[in-house]
Amino acid sequence: METDDTQDAPNKGRRRSGRATITDVARHANVARITVSRAINDPGSVSPERRRRVDAAIAALGYVPNRHAGSLASSMSPVVPLIVPSLSNTVFLEVIRGAQSVLEAVGYELLLGNTDYDVEREQKLMQTLLGWSPAGAIVSGLRHSDGTLAMLRRWDGPCVEIMEYGTPNIDMNVGLSHEAAGATMARHLIARGYRRIGFVGTLLEWDYRAAQRLSGFQSALDQAGIELSFVERLEAPSTVGLGGKALKRIFSHHPDADATFFANDDLAVGAILEAPRLGIRVPDDMAVAGFNGLNLGNHVNPRLTTIVSPRLRMGRRAAEMLLAGIRGEPVPQRAQDIGFRLVPQEST
Amino acid sequence: METDDTQDAPNKGRRRSGRATITDVARHANVARITVSRAINDPGSVSPERRRRVDAAIAALGYVPNRHAGSLASSMSPVVPLIVPSLSNTVFLEVIRGAQSVLEAVGYELLLGNTDYDVEREQKLMQTLLGWSPAGAIVSGLRHSDGTLAMLRRWDGPCVEIMEYGTPNIDMNVGLSHEAAGATMARHLIARGYRRIGFVGTLLEWDYRAAQRLSGFQSALDQAGIELSFVERLEAPSTVGLGGKALKRIFSHHPDADATFFANDDLAVGAILEAPRLGIRVPDDMAVAGFNGLNLGNHVNPRLTTIVSPRLRMGRRAAEMLLAGIRGEPVPQRAQDIGFRLVPQEST
DNA sequence: CTGAAAGCGCTTACAG
DNA sequence: CTGAAAGCGCTTACAG
To answer: Which residues of chain A have pLDDT under 50?
Structure first.
């Protein structure tokens, strides 16, 4: 008999999962276990007749392969950690959704990690997640602790750093230039004739991409010979409510301001919504601009001028680059600028 | 020598992961592999001296346990699938965040699944995810395909059905009664003197929890001898923009309406933002109410009357119930009503 | 195209 | 408290 590979083993009372195993399928289909494995993972390498028998056995037994056994044997697992700095923010939800849709379609599982903008947490998370022998990894940003960098460089799987465009620290990168986005917004405000221009941001030490937007914003103003009138730094997470408070503060501290670039749309929308209550007309008394391109900005009055960041597309692109890396396909552009789009509307 | 368990094996050219293994740590610490395992998983069962040696070896080698080997050997894996119907919605983000925070703290990994409100996709997803031998599972809703139910009932791990309160189909439940929420809103509108009351919802066949709110809303109106004036059904996902369109439609189809309960805050906020453009005063011309309790509703003018659903708490609670189940601790209340809170504001 | 043997890196169950 | 043996359920590498 050709399938004596599937005999019962002694199995001294060890705990088994209870589920059907590849051995059960092999016995049912009267083939060797390895043939079952091939029928699943590389069907073309098995004769149609045997493939049919295996498929029937799988259906009859309700067989679901044990992923851990497979991953252990092949020392590679169809999982991909995606580490984001925040789960309080729609922005990262869209990145997650983009990556998910691509990975799930080819049978990869997303392992979601949240650092809350803490590089120490990122390092611990990454260490744990590497214990799953992931096929690849996606991490947010280009700034990591030395420990995280060392760990990822030692690791041999593909890795994509997302959110900001730049030279990859580890392997690959896809993102946008936040400096360029800030500069673009500065030039827009200048072109519209504003001259007493300020910036509002929250937690800029942690959200350093917002700080990069500020930096690009300021440089472009400088180049045009315009001084940045003020920078308001708030020490709480960005919310619509906080944007309203910021507006109040701007008008008490900087009553002559004629335009403000808010670090993101949440703050900017909050300012627009609060303005009528404060008797402030946007943009006549002060122009308001944001960043992200949240849908909400199109439904406030006046509509918000903002910069759209292609988050969904960035998530997808990162997953696609990773898959190429996993499959050993060439990735000609190891750093990809996903770009952004200025959307001038009524608020400026 | 007591550690002859750690001799080099023949290993005929098989692919190894390259990482340090438990055998490496054991050799380094001059103990048996099982001692390393115990030092990690049950430190109290190892003598302080040996524990110290093991810890030092782990640090020296940068050892990270291979999760797949552990999961395969113990036939249980520290992962928990969380299946949600949508990733386009902040609501589920908060549930995810709540569950994440509890599970991550005790070393469990969240496997995120998205069904896009498709029960067939749910079944496929669950089948794949069970291949990871998860410690437990969290699924959204109490309605599943027969196949999904059969699969989960056959499976022996703990499972929590979330989002809506009711008799668990599988194991445990935590959620809120959407019928009761609808009824509460109806009584609120009646108490404020409204009598020409309507409802707006989107994709009610899929988002059946919104349909449950409508059902409870209508029953409570009936009980008060008030007829539900209209139901507008829109066939696109709920967004702020769609809420504005809905308002327009209400005023052309039902010009005498004096109050509308929107299926969720996105729609309701959209209506409030669009109202001034249509020359409609809220609540004088028409009252607007929502559901979810998004922060945004507190910053529009007028502020939105809504029902707050404790999403973050629900995610946490589900994870806690699951952990209790995993640890074999008793869970006295297998179905938990997490409740909701009516927040009357200026829009009604 | 097919299979027997060996091994992935852990934990269980047993024995002291 | 400590360890040797066996096994979890797959895939790799070899051989035909």
So the answer is: 1-13
> What residue type is assigned to position A29 of the chain?
A
Q: What is the nearest CA distance from B187 to chain A, expressed in angstroms?
A: 29
Pairing of strands B341-343, B306-308: antiparallel
Q: Which nucleotide is nearest to A20 (CA to C1')?
A: D9
What Rg value do the Cα atoms of chain B yield, rounded? 27
pLDDT (tens digit, 9 = 90+) per residue, A174-228? 999 999 999 999 999 999 999 999 999 999 999 999 999 999 999 999 999 999 9
Which H or E element spans position A293? none
Phi, psi values for residue B207, rounded to 5° = -80, 70
| Per-residue pLDDT reduced to its tens digit, B260-303 | 999 999 999 999 999 999 999 999 999 999 999 999 999 999 99
Among candidate residues B28, B75, B72, B17, the one with its CA nearest the CA of residue B50: B28
Which residues, including other chains, have CB under 8 Å from residue B306's CB and lie 6 or more apart?
A: B265, B268, B289, B290, B291, B292, B293, B294, B297, B343, B345
pLDDT of residue B19: 84
How far apart (Å, rounded) are the C-alpha atoms in residues A172 and B75? 36
pTM summary value:
0.90
Name residues 59-88 of chain B with a Cβ under 7 Å from nucleic strand D: 69, 72-73, 75
Confirm if A84 and A92 have CB atoms less than 8 A apart.
yes
Q: Is the peptide bond before A310 cis (omega within 30 degrees of 0)?
A: no
DSSP β-bridge partners for residue A182: none
A147 burial (CB, 10 Å; 0-12 / 13-18 / 19+) is middle
- Residue A231 has what pLDDT? 97
**Chain B neighbours among A 63-92 (CB < 8 Å)?**
64-69, 71-72, 74-75, 77, 87-88, 90
- Provide, in whole angstroms, the distance separating residue A129's CA from nucleotide C3's C1': 36
Give the A:B interface size as CB pairs under 8 Å. 127
Phi, psi of B74 (to 5 degrees): -95, -5
Beta bridge mates, A306:
A343
Take residue A201 and report the two structure tokens written for it: 């941001």
Q: Which residue has the tokens 């997302």?
A: A162
Short-list A128, A151, A193, A267, CA closest to B64: A128
d(CA B79, CA A132): 11
Query: What are the structural domains of chain A?
Result: 4-65 (1.10.260.40), 78-176+312-339 (3.40.50.2300), 178-308 (3.40.50.2300)
Distances (CA, A) of B189 to A215, A320, B28, B212, B261: 50, 50, 72, 18, 9
A109-114 and A79-84 beta bridge pairing = parallel
- Phi-psi region for residue A117, left (φ > 0), alpha (ψ -120 to 50) or beta? left
B66: nearest nucleotide, CA–C1' criterion: C9
Residue A343 φ then ψ, to 5° = -120, 95
Q: What is the pLDDT of residues B158-196, one digit of tens each?
A: 999 999 999 999 999 999 999 999 999 999 999 999 999
Which residues neighbour B219 within 8 Å (Cβ) at sequence distance 6 or greater? B179, B182, B183, B186
pLDDT at site B2:
35
